[in-house]
Write a structure and sequence with these properties.
The complex is a heterodimer of chains A (168) and B (257). Chain A has 168 residues and is of the alpha+beta class. Chain A has 4 helices and 5 strands. In chain A, strands 2-1-5-4-3 form a 5-stranded antiparallel sheet. Chain B has a 5-stranded antiparallel sheet with strand order 1-2-3-5-4. Classes of the chains: A alpha+beta (168), B alpha+beta (257). Chain B: Part of the multisubunit TRAPP (transport protein particle) complex.
Chain lengths: 168, 257
C-alpha cells in the first residue's frame, strides 16, 4: 500500500524484471520429492497443498499425454520414422501472474518451475536444473532414488544458479 | 593443531614438477604383442577393446589421453561407497573401508609415477623420496597432479606433534558431487584419498600410523563463518608417521635432503 518508489528506468529498458518463484520436483509416481522457493511473490501453500498440487499435476500430465495426437511424418516424406516419438504431456500452465513450466526427463522425473510470465529462456534454465540434478543428486551415494531430495550441494547449486539469473 | 606453520606452498612448482613430458617410448621395449592380446574370437566385451590392447598391454609411459571422465569416476565412486556401506556398522568403519580401497592404489602409484618421471631429458632422474619432506612434496605435487590435475592447496606440519603433517585440499575432487547427510556429518569420503596417501607413504618405506581425512569447517567456532562461505568442502589429510620414522629423520639430521 505504501507508495513505493518507481523502479529504475533501466528495468523498463531491458525488461530485467525476471523472477523465478519456486521449483518443485515430482518423482515418477507423482510424489513431491523436492520443493524450494527462490523469491517471495507467490502465496504460501502448506505442505499438504503442495503434495496435492504435485499429485494432481502428475495425473493431469498423464491424461494429456494420452490425449496427445500421434505426430505425422513431415510433409512429403514417405519413410516411416524409425524413432518412436514419445507423446509429451502438459508443458506450460499460465495464469496472469505466474507461469508453471514442466520438464519431464527420460526417466519420468518432472521439474516444475514457477516463474513470472515474461521470464525468458525457461527451457535453458530447466536444462541447467536437470544438469544440477544429475550431478548433485544422482551422483550422490547417500541419495535413494524416488525419495525426497536432501542434498546440500544441490541446494547450493540451485541457489547459485537461480540467484544469478534473478540478478542478471 | 590450530597453530601450525606452513612448511611450503606446493603451488610454487618444484623443479621436479609432475608435468609428464612427451615421453620417449624408446626407453622401454614395446609390449610383447600376441601372447596376451589374442582373445578368442567369440570373447568380446569390455575386457578386450577392438584394437585388442587392454590396459595391461599399454606402454606404462603413455599418459596422453589418459584422463578419465569425471562422471564415470563419480558413478564408480558412488557404487564403491554404497558397496562399503552395506557391510559396515558405523562411520569409522566405513571410512576404514574406503581407506583400505585406496591403499593398494597408493602403493602402485608411487612406483608408476617415479618410473614415469625418470626418462625426462632435461631434469635429473627422480630418486625415491627417502625423507619426509621430499615424500610430502611428491604427494602434494606429483601425486596430486596425476590424480586431480592440480597440486594440493597446502602442506603444514602440526605444531602440537612433530610426527603429524597435514595436507589440505579446498575442494577434494572425490567429494565434488557428494552431500553427506546430516546424521553422518562426520563422514568424509575423501578417506579414499587418505588411503592412497597411506599407500604411498608405506610404499616409500616411511611407515605411517594412520592417514585420515577431516572436515575443516566444523568444530572450532572462530572463523568458521568465513570457511563456510569460501570452501565449505575443505578437507585436511592428517598424516601420522610412526615414531621410528621420526627417530630416523632426527638421526639423519640436516645431511642429505
Amino acid at each position: 500500500m505504501s507508495p513505493s518508489s518507481p523502479p529504475p528506468i533501466w528495468k523498463h529498458v531491458f525488461n530485467f524484471t525476471r523472477v523465478v518463484f519456486a521449483l518443485l520436483v515430482v518423482n515418477k509416481a507423482g510424489g513431491l520429492i523436492y520443493n524450494r522457493e527462490f523469491s517471495a511473490g507467490l502465496n504460501k501453500l502448506n505442505s499438504n497443498d503442495l503434495l496435492i498440487l504435485a499429485g494432481t499435476f502428475h495425473g493431469v500430465h498423464a491424461i494429456t499425454r494420452s490425449l496427445s495426437p500421434l505426430p505425422r511424418p513431415p510433409y512429403g516424406s514417405f519413410a516411416p520414422t524409425d524413432v518412436p516419438v514419445r507423446p509429451t504431456g502438459l508443458e506450460v500452465l499460465e495464469s496472469t501472474h505466474f507461469r508453471l513450466t514442466c520438464f519431464q526427463t527420460a526417466t519420468g522425473v518432472k521439474f516444475l518451475l514457477l516463474t513470472d510470465p515474461p521470464q525468458p529462456n525457461i527451457d535453458v534454465m530447466l536444462r541447467r536444473i536437470y544438469e544440477l540434478y544429475a550431478d548433485y543428486v544422482m551422483k550422490n551415494p547417500f541419495y535413494t532414488v524416488e525419495m525426497p531430495i536432501r542434498c546440500e550441494k544441490f541446494d547450493r547449486g540451485l541457489d547459485g544458479y537461480l540467484r544469478v539469473i534473478a540478478r542478471a | 593443531m590450530s597453530s601450525s606453520r606452513p612448511l611450503s606452498n606446493p603451488s610454487f612448482n618444484s623443479p621436479q614438477s609432475a608435468s609428464t613430458p612427451p615421453t620417449a617410448p624408446a626407453v622401454r621395449p614395446p609390449a610383447p604383442s600376441g601372447s596376451a592380446g589374442t582373445p578368442q574370437p567369440g570373447h568380446s566385451g569390455l575386457r578386450y577393446p577392438s584394437n585388442r590392447k587392454t590396459i595391461y598391454d599399454r606402454n606404462l609411459n603413455r599418459s596422453k589421453n589418459a584422463e578419465l571422465s569425471r562422471a564415470a569416476f563419480a558413478y564408480l565412486f558412488v557404487e564403491m561407497i554404497s558397496y562399503a556401506q552395506r557391510r559396515v556398522t558405523g562411520i569409522a568403519d566405513l571410512e576404514k573401508r574406503l581407506n583400505e580401497q585406496g591403499y593398494p592404489l597408493g602403493l602402485k602409484l608411487l612406483d608408476l609415477l617415479l618410473y614415469r618421471s625418470a626418462p625426462s631429458s632435461t631434469q635429473p632422474p627422480t630418486t625415491r623420496p627417502t625423507r619426509i619432506l621430499p615424500l610430502l612434496q611428491f604427494i602434494t605435487t606429483t601425486l596430486w597432479r596425476h590424480l586431480f590435475s592440480r597440486p594440493a592447496d597446502a602442506l603444514e606440519r602440526s605444531a602440537a606433534n612433530a610426527a603429524e603433517y597435514m595436507v589440505s585440499d579446498n575442494e577434494p575432487l572425490v567429494n565434488s558431487y557428494i552431500s553427506v547427510p546430516r546424521e553422518m556429518s562426520q563422514l568424509n569420503c575423501a578417506a579414499f584419498v587418505a588411503g592412497i596417501i597411506e599407500g604411498v607413504c608405506d610404499g616409500a618405506g616411511l611407515k605411517t600410523v594412520s592417514v585420515s581425512a577431516h572436515w575443516v569447517g566444523e568444530g572450532d567456532g572462530g572463523g568458521a563463518g568465513a570457511k563456510e562461505g569460501m570452501w565449505p568442502g575443505k578437507t585436511i589429510f592428517l598424516i601420522k608417521f610412526a615414531p621410528e620414522v621420526i627417530e630416523r629423520e632426527e638421526i639423519m639430521g640436516g645431511k642429505g635432503g
